[in-house]
């Protein structure tokens, strides 16, 4: 699931994929027509998304990389709720697709488009978390 010699560990790759799926789902339920037809389902999906982000943040995986995506998932849940109420649900979907694309690309390739955009290097991660399967016998 993760590639050796990157800073993307197994738990981080899973959290990025789950966050990406939630981001797209939250964008879909925030679309104005869906939100007007079933607002309770929209709030239910956003609450579940916020709770999952809280789990990633508080599960003790901060050094493993899931904490950052947990915070991002919680912020995205709040932003998608606000965009749904303000009738800008398509922007929530666009934001969700961008977050999902970054999450899936980073989980699969070990290279983040956002890190390339901001010229940051995350390969100075803790060696214990960088190679998830090394030494596991």
- Compressed to H and E, one letter per element, the order equals HHHHHHH
Annotation, overall tally of beta strands: 0
| General form | globular
Name the quaternary structure.
single chain
Helical/strand content category = mainly alpha
* Structural domains: how many: 1
Report the span from N to C terminus: 18 Å
* Biggest β-sheet strands, sense, barrel: none
Give the C-alpha Rg: 16 Å
Weakly predicted, low-confidence segments: 125-137
* Approximate helicity band: over 70%
Sheet-strand content, in percent, reads under 5%
Helix run count = 7
Explain what this protein looks like in three dimensions.
This protein is mainly alpha-helical. It has one domain (14-112). It has helices at residues 10-29, 32-37, 39-58, 66-85, 89-109, 113-117, 127-130. Helix 1 (10-29) packs antiparallel against helix 3 (39-58), helix 1 packs parallel to helix 4 and helix 3 (39-58) runs antiparallel to helix 4 (66-85). Residues 125-137 have low confidence and may be disordered.
Brief characterization of the structure:
By secondary structure, this protein is mainly alpha-helical.
List keywords for this structure.
137 residues; mainly alpha; 7 helices
Write the SSE topology.
Elements: H1 10-29, H2 32-37, H3 39-58, H4 66-85, H5 89-109, H6 113-117, H7 127-130
